[in-house]
Specification:
mainly alpha; 0% strand
């Protein structure tokens, strides 16, 4: 996998990293933290998000967290509020705000 990771585009590397390590679940997760975890500068991370993934950090974070919530809700009997917390949201209200933000800004979720 390490050879593939080195040959993959930066956007694919970022998606793979987030899928495997799920750093978005931390309440302290930020653009700066993610850049450090990837070994990139914050400016390079922003460029990868904008140019390759056509998004920004806030939307990227919301998509990852909401996808986690959706997957967990389908595959477990854990309380909905707990799943939301596991995804990194402070409350069900914050989760709902993220969901509405995506609907209005991107037209999905």
């Amino acid at each position: 996998m390490s050879q593939w990771f080195n040959e993959a585009t930066a956007g694919l590397q970022l998606l793979s990293f987030c899928e495997v390590w799920q750093p978005f679940r931390s309440k302290d997760w930020s653009e700066t933290v993610l850049a450090q975890e990837m070994g990139w500068s914050p400016a390079y991370l922003r460029r990868v998000l904008q140019e390759e993934l056509e998004t920004d950090f806030v939307t990227f974070c919301a998509v990852l967290r909401l996808a986690f919530v959706r997957k967990m809700a389908q595959n477990t009997y854990v309380n909905r509020h707990r799943i939301s917390q596991m995804a990194g949201f402070d409350s069900l209200r914050e989760e709902e705000i993220s969901r509405k933000m995506l609907v209005f800004s991107k037209g999905f979720f």
